[in-house]
Design brief:
Rossmann fold, 3-stranded antiparallel β-sheet, 11 strands
Length: 223
Amino acid sequence: MILKREILITSDGSTTIHLPEWNEQYHSKHGAIQEAYHVFIKHGLSLFTASETISVLEIGFGTGLNAFISYLEAKKHQLNINYLGVEAYPVEKEEVQKLNYVTELNVKKEQVVFDKMHSLSWDKKHVLSTNFSLTKRKQFFDKINDVELYNLIYYDAFGARVQPELWTVDIFKKMFNALKQGGVLVTYSAKGSVRRALQEVGFIVERLPGPPGKREMLRGEKS
């Protein structure tokens, strides 16, 4: 899957990567940063406290936006985060240079960290601050076989319209197995088929208000 990729400005001024052949984006065209904060921070990371070490698995490292804002949140709230981002098709260096998240988030002193997130070697744990480590794994999502390692999963794969195989019972069984007891999966998707697949593998699922441009999103807990 080598598709043409273009930089697109979303409604909140932040960039995303657009795949014209699929008419699909890495982040919501209604606001990349707004979506990331709403789905993955407000309804995911904010459930956890500074008293615990939080292991995060991101399905779709992509532009690095979700990892970067998680790093910023860790710094702001003194959270201890071990972050694993899985990606089969890494973003190119030239594309990274066109992403404006550092500017839009008004954190220019953190430009070196954002750049480092993309330049660091794969399959190795890197300490980016006293309370945030990043591991990037170049892997297809259906090859994930981790067991009870994570507190939180950011499920940010391309939508079911273009990659339905990433929203199946088989995939979500792997996600369920990867979570520790009490762990949580959050995703921007609100499709009924996704909700049913999550429930079938054992998640307790709730519908939540969606980010700009979406009425709802889903969160599943491994109770």
